[in-house]
Specification:
Elements (H helix, E strand, L loop, with lengths): L19 E13 L2 E2 L9 E6 L6 E7 L11 E13 L3 E6 L12 E8 L2 E9 L4 E7 L3 H25 L3 H23 L3 H14 L4 H13 L3 H14 L1
Antiparallel strand pairs: 1-2, 1-3, 1-9, 3-4, 4-5, 5-6, 6-7, 7-8, 8-9
Helix pairs in contact: 1-5, 2-3, 2-4, 3-4, 4-5
């Protein structure tokens, strides 16, 4: 039997939708060797994201909602870890890392437990098995922070698409996507010229949904949001354009 043959079968599906699950916390407790530390972490905003496309492989990322990472220069506190579903019961969903990253570090050193209450997740525990450390994150509710977490995760998806586009996407697929995206972008330009800003925004967003790295659509959407004074969206477009350049 292999190391992870005990993992659940591909047909098993969590009772909570983890297709793109986001958990927001403003307080956590660090437990080392079974003993909680005394540090006061109230106000330490963290965002935990779990993604899956097949309920077989799960990708876990953590964001620092307070500030950028001192080394990486972004808001990712824990880079994406690949995990499998180990077990689920009425109280929790347990994920465990498997495989290795590009540098050969084992994902099995990490795990994640989503603690359930009345069908909802009320806290999340990050396990660092090799160091015997658990960090328990308590749930927080904050609309502005939730919006920021969505922006962080959206930017990660944008970077993933740009990387795939530049490295391993077949040329025929790229041409097909680009043609469809440009056609919708042109519809947005026509709406903009007809002073239909709402329609233009709708078309430009559709173009970017097909091709997130369409720089023409990003510039056009930035112009629209600037016109209506949505500075948060303007900054989002600028960040993506800067990344592409």
């Amino acid at each position: 039997m292999g190391l992870f043959d005990f993992l659940k079968s591909k047909s098993d599906k969590p009772t909570i939708d983890l297709t793109d699950y986001k958990f927001l916390s403003d307080d956590h407790t660090r437990i080392e060797n079974g003993q909680p530390t005394n540090a006061n972490n109230k106000g330490s905003w963290r965002g935990i994201r779990v993604k899956t496309s097949d309920n077989s492989t799960f990708y876990v990322t953590m964001y620092n909602m307070n500030e950028n990472h001192p080394v990486w220069g972004d808001n990712i506190q824990m880079a994406e870890k690949r995990m499998k579903l180990v077990d689920e019961n009425t109280d929790k969903i347990i994920l465990r890392g498997y495989g290795t990253d590009a540098m050969g570090a084992s994902f099995a050193d990490y795990g994640l437990t989503l603690h359930k209450s009345n069908g909802n997740v009320n806290k999340v525990t990050l396990h660092m098995h090799d160091r015997r450390i658990d960090i328990v994150y308590k749930k927080a509710e904050d609309r502005n922070q939730s919006k920021t977490l969505n922006q962080y995760s959206d930017f990660d998806d944008f970077k993933d698409f740009a990387y795939k586009w530049n490295t391993n996407m077949p040329m025929q697929e790229k041409m097909q996507i680009a043609m469809q995206s440009d056609m919708i972008n042109n519809q947005g330009a026509a709406a903009y010229n007809a002073n239909d800003l709402a329609g233009a925004i709708k078309y430009f967003e559709q173009a970017l949904k097909l091709m997130p790295n369409n720089d023409d659509a990003l510039k056009n959407l930035k112009l629209c949001y600037s016109k209506i004074g949505n500075h948060s969206k303007v900054n989002e477009m600028e960040k993506k354009l800067k990344y592409l350049s």
